[in-house]
Amino acid sequence: MPFSKGTASWSVQMDLSSIDGLFKELKIGHFSDYRPWTLKEMLQKYSFAVLLFAVFLLGLLSLTLFLYLKLKRRSEQLVATLRAKIKTDRAMKEAEARLMALQKISTIDHMSSMIAHELPQPLGAVQAYAEGLLRAQNKQALDSQTLTEMLIKIIFQTKKVEDIVNSVRNYAKERKLKKTPSKVNGTVAEAIQDFRFAFHCDNLAINFFRSNAEPVCSLSPLEFELAIYNLLKNAKEALEAQNVKNPEITLAVNEDKDSCRIAIADNGSKVSDDELQRIQVSMSSRKSAGLGIGLSIVRSIIQNHGGKFSIKRTELGSGITCEITLPLFKAEHSQEIKPDRTIEAHTK
For the whole model, what pTM was predicted? Predict the structure, then answer.
C-alpha cells in the first residue's frame, strides 16, 4: 500500500513470541513436531555431562569428609600432646624442686668438707708460729726482728683463713671464680711452704723441681694453693699409713706448647690395677681412714680452672702420681701478672 501521510504505515515486528506461542499451540510450521522435554530424555542426551558432574560432586564431598576427619584426628592428637606436655612440665617442676633440695644438701655438705679440709692448714700454721714465739720467749731468744717476722706470718695466715671463708661463701652464692695471671712456680712453692709450716716434715723429703720457662696460668691463687696443699697432705698421710721407711714426695712443674703440667708423686707401695681404677673413678683416698673428699675438692678446683686432673702410677712402678694440666695464659693479652713471691721450698 502506498504511504499516506497521517495514516498507519508498515513496520518490522521485533517480538514474535506471541506468534511462536500460537504456532506451538496449533502445532503447525516448524512446531509441527514439538513436544516438551522429559527428565529422562535430558539425562539420556546429557548423560556424560551429568556423570562427570556427579563424579566431581562426589569427589568434592569425599575430600571434604577426609579433611574433616584428618583435622579432627590431628586436633585430638594436639590436645593429647598438650595434656602430656602439661603433665610432663608439672613432673619436671616437681623433679627440679627435689633436685634443688638435693643440691642445697650437697652444697652444704661440700662447703662443710671444704671448711674441714682447708681451715686446718692456715690455723695449723698460726699455731706453729705461736708455739715458736712461745718457745723463743721461754728461751729468752726473742728479738724484735723475729717477733715482727712471726707476727707478719701470723697475720698472713689469718688473712688466708678469711680468704677461705670468703671462697666458701662465694661457692655457696655461686659467684664466678676470680682468677688472675699467676706464675705457677711461685704458687706451688707457697703451697709447699704452708704445708711445711702446718706439719712437721722432718722425716718427709719434699723435692720441688721448678720449670725454667716460668709458666703463667690464669689462677685463683688461694684455691690452687689449697689444691696443691690437699695433694701433699693426702700423699703424706698415705705414706704414713703404709709405713714407708723413707717417705718422699716429688713435685715437678713443666711447660708444654699450650699447657702447664704439675706432677705430684710419692714413693708409696705398689698399687694394684683394681685399686688404681677405684681411685681414678671414685677419687677415693688410699688412707685407711680417708674418705677421698680432698681429692674430690682438688678435681673440682682444677676443673673450675679449665684444667684436667688425673691419677696414675709413677714411672718407677710404685706409688701414685697426681698430674694437673692447666692451659697457659696468653701473656700478650695480660695487663698485669701476679709477681712470683720469693719463697724457699727447701728443694733437693
Answer: 0.51
